């Protein structure tokens, strides 16, 4: 699914109006009708409805919702904010229509003192600004937003298209923004919905179809995308019935150190569950027995060092591996850093780099420029910060993520609720599978194993990254459904991978 900018969404509206053809008023009716239907499905007429409308087209949506809900027996109170001397033509049209139907239920708000007193079972609908914001809200309108937010613990707040005050494509840090429990948005996710800093605002997001013209959607390029099942089905390659273990690649996993062999075991198990044909694990001497007993399907190479891996670069170029994954639990010893440098000098194919290998890149920044082109880097936010520096907000961090992926020609993901995957061509994909139960030790090691296994099967780096992150999150969702988010562990993600392949694609 494409994620369009606010400007592109306005273009999509205009394109639909010109090419369907349909009037802007009828398109507004279509969008508001979807919202009214959702509201009526979730709230009975016993709930008084208070709709706060701005004077643009988002406010026009609110006016149509008011009219439609009135027609179905709801007690509707329409509060129009007088923040501008002018209203949009569609707003004016919808206001005239509503005035003819229900003149006594329309109120004007010109200051915070005009904020209505709400009965106990009322619902609040925010239709003040939507995607039309170009600057932070200020003055008495900001005060109205604060008063709406003060009602949050007493009344449901439903935002139409966007919570008012939230910028679709820019940072809204420190801006007054409506804190909605639910957002009813149209046709596409907005970038703002996918950023951690905006978590308090949108609540549960529901994307409602409004029939925007498919030609605009297919023909218009987008920088941002949201991964979905349809995309995964185009990436996934079913198994060949005449295949053998050599068909699905030989992966090398460099992982583990004294006290951190659990990370290596989890990553190895995940790599095997992801379908790799053969797996060799390079581990320090202290880890050989642990790995051989814990995961007998994995072969082992034992390092010359007792506690750390410091010689894993030897013989790499002639070993016949299809993919290498490095990082889980390897620690940050100087000898490990030196071997990592020699590995990257000898191995010129994409590899998966995670955990302590990322930390070594941040300690020795020149190594970042030795990483083979097309490699997969998988930092969490703190690792990303150590690698590339701090940013003022999530939009700036997303820009830095994309910039570094292009500059270094790498695939870099930034872990989070909606993990962002930046590609060397400048595109960014957000993944929506996964849940907070995956915020547990070892979850990242599992992802490293999955990605290494897919890369060894000769999925392209982009395909491996997109499919691997999707499967990892989907397996986490299945594990949480069975065990709860609180009780699930990283091992449960691995155990659910088989069902993720069967059900998630």
Written description of the protein model:
Strands 1-9-18-17-16-15-14-13-10-11-12 form an eleven-stranded mixed sheet. Helices cover 40% and strands 14% of the residues. The longest helix is centred in the C-terminal third of the chain and has 23 residues, at 461-483. The chain is built from 18 helices and 18 strands. It has two domains: 2-222, 3-Layer(aba) Sandwich (Rossmann fold), CATH 3.40.50; 249-390 and 431-500, 3-Layer(aba) Sandwich (UDP-N-acetylmuramoyl-L-alanine:D-glutamate ligase). Helix 2 crosses helix 3 (57-70) and helix 12 (355-363) packs parallel to helix 13. Strand 14 (352-353), helix 12 and strand 15 form a beta-alpha-beta unit. The radius of gyration is 27 Å and the shape is elongated. The chain starts with a strand and ends with a helix. The chain is α/β, with parallel strands linked by helices and 505 residues long. Its cofactor is K(+); Mg(2+).
Give me the secondary-structure category.
alpha/beta
Give a count of the beta strands, DSSP E runs of length 2 or more: 18
Mean residue pLDDT: 97
The main β sheet shows up as: 11 strands, mixed
CATH architecture of the largest domain: 3-Layer(aba) Sandwich
Q: Please, what is the CATH homologous superfamily of the largest domain?
A: YjeF N-terminal domain
The general outline is: elongated
In order across it, which strands form the biggest sheet?
1-9-18-17-16-15-14-13-10-11-12
- Helix proportion: 40-55%
Rounded to the nearest angstrom, the radius of gyration is: 27 Å
DSSP strand (E) fraction? 5-15%
Q: Given this structure, which CATH class of the largest domain is correct?
A: Alpha Beta
Write the CATH fold name of the largest domain.
Rossmann fold
> Which regions have little confidence, pLDDT < 50, spanning 5+ residues?
none
Write down the domain tally: 2
Q: Give the end-to-end Cα distance, rounded to a whole number of Å.
A: 16 Å
Helix count, per DSSP? 18
